[in-house]
Amino acid sequence: MRIGGVLFLLAISVASVRAASPEAIKEVAAELVCLCGDCARESLATCLCGFATQQREDIGSSLDGGKTAQETIDKYVSEYGQMVLASPPAEGVNLLAWITPFAALIFGVFLIRSILRNRMQEASPTPTVETAQRDRLQRELERFDEDD
Amino acid sequence: MIDFGYFALCLALLTSGYALLSSLAGGRSGRLALVRSAENAMLATCLLLTLAVCVLWHALLTHNFQVRFVAENSNLAMPFFYTITSLWGGQAGSLLFWGWILSLYIAAVVLVYRHRYRELMPYAVSVMAASSFFFCILHLFSADPFVTLPFKPEDGRGLNPLLQQPLMAIHPPLLYLGMIGMVVPFAFAMAALGSGHLDSTWLRPARRWMLIPWSFLGAGLLLGGKWAYVELGWGGYWGWDPVENSSLMPWLAGTAFLHSVMVQERKGMLKVWNMILAILCYGLCILGTFITRSGIISSVHAFAKSNIGPFFAVFLVVMLVASFGLLYLRLPQLKPENRLESFASRETAFLLNNWILLGILFAVFWGTLFPLISEAFTGQQITVGPPFFNQVNVPIGLVLILLTGAGPLFAWRRTSEESLKKSFAVPIAVGVLSLPFLLGLGVRDLYALISLVLCAFVTAAIVSEYHAGTRARMRSTGEGYATALYRLSAKNRRRYGGYMTHLALVLLFVGFTGKAFTSEVELVLDRGETVPVGEYELTYETMAFKEDANMSSTAAALTLSRDGQRLGTLLPERRYYKSFDQGTTEVSIFSDLREDFYLILVGSAEDGSAKFQVYINPLVNFVWLGSIVLILGSIWAMWPTARDRRIARIDRSAATTPLQPSPVGT
Fold first, then answer.
1. Which of B15, B319, B388, B424 could be joined to A87 by an S-S link, Cβ 3.0–4.6 Å?
2. Higher confidence at residue B607 or residue A11?
3. Does residue B383 form part of some domain?
4. Strands across the sheet with B595-604, in order?
C-alpha cells in the first residue's frame, strides 16, 4: 500500500468517452492485484498508484473493445501469471486453498462429537472429591463476595 | 555512551541465561536461594534492558547519526514525538523495544507473585528467561541497534512517512504488548507440565495474564485498522495482509483460551486442550514475528530484509518441539475429572465456541501460508488476497456471532428444554422481527441480512441476560434497577465484562456488515464546480501547494453539504516525502454515526481541474465504537474484585512470615 513516489501527482487525462462503466471496470479490477512492485499487491480496484490507474484504463479499453470481463482477466493472467489474480483460481492444487478451511471445520465437528460421546460414556460418573470440594468452595466464595 | 548500551545488552544476555538455568535447577532441587537469585537476575535483566533502551533513546534525541539505527530512522527535521517513537520504526530498535517489554512483563510477574504460585514460579521464570535470553542473542548477534558507522552523517534519513502519524506511533507498542505478554500464560502452562502440578492452579495466573495481552492485542489490531483507514487511502480498514493476519491469529487463539479455561475451572475438563491453546498463543506470536521480520511472504509491513528469519525459525521449532514433547509426556496425568452430563450444556457451547474460533484461525493461517504451499507444488507464484479471506471467513464469522448470542443462554451441566425455550424466546423473537424492519430499510444483500438479524438476536440475548440478573438481584436485595444492575456487574466482573465484549463484537459486526453497502465514485472537477454525490453536494473550491525541507504537499479544499446544509470543508491532500521518495495520501473524512464521506485527492491537471475518489462507507463508525466497548469490557473484566483484594491482603501478611521451601517437582 505504499504509494509509488515516482508518479506522485498524476497528470490526469480528461475523461475519455467510454462504453464500459466505471463499475464494470472496478469489478474486473477487484479480481486483480497491483503488480507495480511498490504496492505489495494491493487490490487493483483501490490502488492509487500510477501503474494501477493505467491498468484500469487498459481494462476499460479491453471492455470497450468487446472483450468480456473473463476474457480481460484471462489476458492479464497470460501476461503476468496467476500472481495477478487477487485470490487463487479454484482448480488444481489451488482448489486446496478453498476446500481445506471448510474441511477442517467439518473435521472439527466430528472431533467434538466424538469427544462429547466419550465424555458422556467413559469418564467417571461421579465428580471426584477434589472437584466436588472445589465446586462447594466456589459457591461459598461467591456467596462471600455477595455479602461483601 | 553508545558502548554503555552495548555493554548492558551483553550483561543482560548473561543475567537472563543465568536465570534460565538457576531457576530450573532451583525448581528441581527445591532450593529457594537458587529460585530467588534467578528472579533477581530477571529483575536485573529488566534494568539492563531499560538502560539499553534509554541509551538508544538518548542517541535518537541527541541526533547521534554515527549510530546507524539513528541515521536510518530519524533526522533533524522530525518533531520530538516522532523522534521518540522512531525507536520502534526500524528493525533493530523495534526488536530491542520488544525485548525490553518482554523483560518488563517478566519483572512484573516476578514482583506480583513473590509469595504466590511458588510451586510453579521456578519453572515459569525459567521459561520466560529463555525467551528473554533468545532476544538478547538477537540484539547482540543479528540486529544490533548500537552498530556505528565509520563516519558521522550530517543528517539522518528520517522515519518512514507512513509512520509519522499519531495512530501509527501507538499501534506497534500495543501490538507488542499484546504479542509478548502471551509468554506469561505459556510459561505457566509449561510450569504446570514441568513441575507436575497439573491441577487447575496454573489457570488462574494464566487467565489473568492472558486477559492483559489479549486486550492490548485487540486494541492494537483495531488501531491498526483505524490507521489504515485514515492513512492508506483505499477506503478500508482491514486488508488481510500477512502481517495483519499474523497478529489476528494469536488474538483468536487467546479468545479461545479465555473461554475454554472456564470449562476447566468449573468442570476439570479440557485440560490437554487448554495446554495446547496456551502453546498455540505464544507459538503464533513467534510465527507472526517470523513472518513479519523475515519477509518470507510479501507484505506491506515488511521490514528491511535481514538474516533474522532463521533465528526465529529455530526458536519457533525448539519452542514447539519442547512444549508439545513435555505435554505428550504428561498426557497420562491429564485425565478429565468430570463426565459430560448433557449435550445441551454450557460445556458444549464452549466447545463449539473453540471450534469456530479455531476454524477462523485455521482459515486465516491457511490463506496466509498457502502461497508457499502452492509454489512448492506448482512452481508458480500466486496471491491469496482479500477476496479469498472474505469469501471463506464471512460464513464462518456468521456462525461465530450466532454462537456469541446462543452460548451464554445454556446453563452449566445441563439445560432443560423448558429453560431453553424460556431463554431463547425473546432473542429469537427480536431477531425474527428485525427481518421485516431491515427489508423495509432496503437491505437486500443476503449476508448483510443474516448478519444484522443475528446481531439483533445477540443484542437481545445479552440485554435479557443483564435484565434477568438485575431482576433477580432486585428481588433478593430490594435495590433499585440501576443499583442492582451496577452491583450485579461489579460482583461478577468476569461474566459481565465478558458480556460487554460480546456486545462489542455485535457492534464490530454491524460495522463489518456496512462494507456490503459501500459505494464509490470517481470525479473530475473544475474549480468552483459543484456535483451531487448521493445525498451530498460537493464543491471544489481551490488547491494549495506548499513545500518544506521534509516534504511537498498538494491540498484541495472542497465544501460538502447535504440537503442544502453546509456540513464542512474537506481538505484531502497528497504529500511527497523527499528523503524517502515516497508519496502518502491524506484522506479527508466527514463522519457521522450512519456513514463516512471519505474523500481522496487522486491528482490534478494543468488546467486547474482535479481528480477525486469518493467512498461512502455506511456504518463504519460502529467498528470504532465496538473497539471502545471492547476495551471497556476487558478493563471491566480485569478490574480486581473484592476477592482479589482479599488475596492480595493475605499475600502481604504472608510476606512477613518465613517462606516455606517449594516442593520438589515431578
1. B388
2. B607
3. no
4. B519-525, B610-618, B595-604, B588-591
One domain for residues B507 and B553: no
Q: Are residues B574 and B440 in the same domain?
A: no
Q: Yes or no: say if B409 and B427 are a contact pair by the CB < 8 Å rule.
A: yes
Q: Are residues B4 and B151 in the same domain?
A: yes
- Do B279 and B227 share a structural domain? yes
CB contact under 8 A, A48 and B363: no
* Same domain, yes or no: B130 and B94: yes
Tell me if the domain spanning A22-84 has CATH number 1.10.8.640.
yes
State the pLDDT at residue B214. 94
Pairwise CB contact (< 8 Å): B383 & A86: yes
Instruction: Tell me the sheet residues that pair with B590.
Output: B597
Q: Does residue A59 belong to the interface with chain B, where contact is any CB pair within 8 Å?
A: no
Inter-chain CB proximity A83 and B380 less than 8 Å: yes
- Asked if B343 lies within 8 A of A116 by C-beta distance, the reply is yes
Is B369 contained in some domain? yes
Q: Above 0.85 for ipTM, yes or no?
A: no
**This prediction's pTM:** 0.89
Range of the domain at B489: 388-516+622-635
CB contact under 8 A, B524 and A15: yes
Statement to judge: residues B348 and B281 lie in one domain: yes
- Stretch among A31-45, A83-97, B323-337, B584-598 having the lowest mean pLDDT: A31-45
The model's confidence at residue A45, banded by pLDDT at 50, 70 and 90, is confident
In this structure, the answer to whether residues B326 and B401 fall within a common structural domain is: no
Kindly identify which residue of chain A lies nearest to residue B343, measuring between CA atoms.
A116
From CA B461, how far away is CA B434, in angstroms rounded?
Answer: 14
Asked whether residue B490 falls in the same domain as residue B553, the answer is: no
H or E, element range at B97: helix B91-112
Nearest chain B residue (CA) to A141? B643
For residue B584, the surrounding DSSP H or E stretch is strand B582-586
- Chain Cα centroid distance, residue B497: 18
Domain count across chain B: 4
Q: What span, in angstroms and rounded, lies between the C-alpha atoms of B214 and B207?
A: 10
Searching chain B, which residue's CA lies closest to the CA of residue A134?
Answer: B266
CATH 1.10.8.640, chain A: domain bounds: 22-84
Give the number of other CB atoms < 10 A from CB of residue B340: 22
Residues of B in contact with A123 (CB under 8 A): 335-340
Helix A95-121 and helix B386-406, axial crossing angle in degrees, nearest 10: 20
